[in-house]
Amino acid sequence: MAPASQSAVVPVIPLAKGTVLFPGSLLRIPVPPSRSDIPALISNVYTRASKGSRRVDQVPVVCVPLSSPLLSRRGQLLLEKAPEEYNELLEADDRNLRKDRLYGYGVTAKITGIQGQNGAEFILLVQGISRISVDKVTQEQPFFEAKVKSHSDAVSREIDSDDYQELFESLKRLSRELISYLRVSAFLLSSGSAGLNPLLSRRLEQFIARKQAAEGGSLADFMMNVVEASYEDKLQVLAAVDVKKRMQKVIELMERQVDDVKGNINVTTVTSTAIPIRIDQEDMEKMNKRNIKKIQIPGLGGPPAGFSFGGMPGGGQAEQQDADELQELEKKIEDAKLPPEAAKVAEREFKRLKHMQPAQAEYQVVRTYLETLAEIPWSIATDDPIGTGTLAAARKQLDNDHYGIEKVKKRLLSYLTIVKLMQSTNEDVDRQIKEAEQETTELELGKPAAKNLSLDSELEEKIKASSLKVQMLQSKRRTERAPILLLVGPPGVGKTSIARSIATALGRQFHRISLGGVRDEAEIRGHRRTYVAAMPGLIVQGLRKVGVANPVFLLDEIDKLGMANHNGDPSAAMLEVLDPEQNHTFNDHYVNTPIDLSKVLFIATANSLDTIPGPLLDRMEILEFSGYTTLEKRHIALRHLVPKQIRVNGLQEDQVKFNGEVVSKIIESYTRESGVRNLEREIGSVCRAKAVEYVEANDKGQPETYRADLTVEDLETILGIERFEDEIAEKNTQPGIVTGLVAYSSGGNGGILFIEVLDMPGDGSVELTGNLGKVLMESVKVARSWVRNHAYELGLTREPTENIMKNRSLHVHCPSGAVPKDGPSSGMAQAIALISLLSGRPVPPTMAMTGEFQLSGHVKRVGGIKEKLIGAYRAGVKTVVLPAQNEKDAREVPSEVKDGLKIIYVSHIWEAIRHVWPDAQWPNETSLPPLQARL
Ligand SMILES: Nc1ncnc2c1ncn2[C@@H]1O[C@H](COP(=O)(O)OP(=O)(O)OP(=O)(O)O)[C@@H](O)[C@H]1O
Predict the structure, then answer these.
(1) N or C: which end of the chain has fewer CB within 10 A?
(2) Residue 710 alpha carbon to ligand 1 centre in Å
């Protein structure tokens, strides 16, 4: 019935709570300053439009409502009754929307206009076109994107069937009936109340009457704007891809409403035009308010399709309103205390605005621009309470919010000390600048009084020297700035939350700018005003939102910033933001007058340093976060995450009790990560499950059956079967397999990997599989040569001259193909794996090793020891063999890990061999020189 056409990836506008857009209808979407996704989406739509030489309304977007807690994403009813926390559930995460909150259906839409409003809010006008289902959300930041499938209302095969015709006729009849009631009710209501005016109702009736059977689906959609329906009803109609089902559902809703109205009206005859009535005024008023105000159908009134800028009030009242608005705007600009350069621009633009007609498209553009200028916090700043006692307070704040990470906290405190010092130096410099400026002005004023020439030139000299002093002091102020911190580490280790704590400790406003996926320079720097609906970039929007000039800006995921492309170079724009030499005159394309960002405290975060361009990296000071050990995670969970999740899920502290054992089980069997984000999520799931249990027990009147204490057994029922088993436990002992260690280049994370070597008849060649790089290939060859050379001492051949590789080929494999592996650090493990294979002696899987291996047999230093050891410990390794040269790196490893591992340091492969097989005899080893001599 409803054939689906092919899928496409399109930008998604998540609709606000309780709002559903249907095909054919118009919607006004208010966009508050807190929503950064829509400006980013609009910017992307503009870029696409200009690239494809299309109009903006030819670039499709989709509007998707939020899913309801009562329905599945596909519209099936899950719960009959709304739970108490219904509103919270629907509202939850409204700002930081995640993809799992989106409903499974929506509509493709075109952007038909943008209206500026007072304040930073604006309104986006969209028109629904056709139904889609969401296959997969492919992107969440900076705006949503999803793979969607469109569904057209093709009904040609069914149109002649009796049941289709019957449904369509009922739909049409009920639609006209409902419109009649609404019109009559409007007629009866006191003037001034929301009502369906006779002209609009006549046009609606004509519109309905003209509908052909093939348009049954669209009529049903249309009537959803008129009929009274709950949010879930609307979502279900949206999910009704099948036209017959859709008509049925809408008929049900209309019947219900018409019956309701009839109950309140004493109807003698019901025709489409006349109803002698006695009516319950209050009910009718309610009904009208709910329904009629929002009817906006293209071509049937409401805002016009196509681009429009603001409403156009008419008559003298409207003129007065415009004048008031201008006055208000002028006051706003005055209050904003713009710096001289910006004030000049504002004055010029304001003059232009006064001479324009409000109906002109340009009027709204200029007004919005001036409003933006007035909203930038040019001179407002929060009081920085940095003074004596601040550091102690900051320490307390950091300790309260975060467990452990002592090194990071220590570094942050010294950072805050620097911020404090810089601030007092700058205050001093500011004072000197003021004095010098005053001196210059005074000298300038004295100029005409100087009569003779020599005095004149002396004065000239003095003025010059004094203005030079001002310049020098200003540049001193600029360079003496606290460094920009870059917090690097795996996801979920607390980078964002610690930045927030710093802002709290400093008493500053906090704003997070997500840079992940920003590919367009204009997103950072804004669009030029010549673009229709241009707007400022992320930095200026952030300033407007916080409303102060000295906030803490968190530049999240700076490593995911897009590279230079045909849309400009976002990292170059970022460079300007972060460079103290430049950022006091930051130039946003939209604002087009320099903005001083020097008071903003920037903190950036990244998962890895690899993709951050060098010049950008140069401007930041790196502070590394490493992953947490199980013990640390347990403390974090019990002290911070559990109380937080209990609170968030509306429970009392004594209503659910986690113990250390339960938390350890969640850590080990349900999460495998360096940070604690998934751990927090799983704890949240457990809390929700307990909340449901608690409510059910109370509903049944048996509160005593509820048990607050959690046990390890409960976890399997709540979270499902264990997701992770001990990696080591999965491996059996077989010659040729050795546990190696890796530190992933992205995310500061480490883990184990298994090196498997197999031999087969052949010509001595080596084959590698498992996504292994070139350097690894070389280290395999080094290991092969060493073993071939020492086969006799190892007891693998009978004669010293015999070539053990002569008739064999080797196959080296490292499972976990998704992890790219390269680098020489697995050399020792490969040599041991090869000896193990050829000698038939297995290596215990709980023993892991890392070290670069040389042809001479020496084992050399490798990187990432800390990550590797934490990863090994997490995976259940008991003994680790490391190069002796790495001994001092291992000192940095948390003591829990060091205590849980036996670490053996070796300088030569023979030492490693003795540790791996302590009881083995090496018959020909005596033919070797003593060990010391070989080192
Ligand atoms: N040491 C800690 N003590 C208490 N809570 C912590 C700690 N580390 C992380 N958390 C909590 O873990 C959650 C995830 O942390 P956060 O969002 O700051 O991670 P992140 O490092 O910024 O991750 P990403 O790189 O993905 O942005 C937060 O709720 C945070 O409070």
Answers:
(1) C
(2) 24
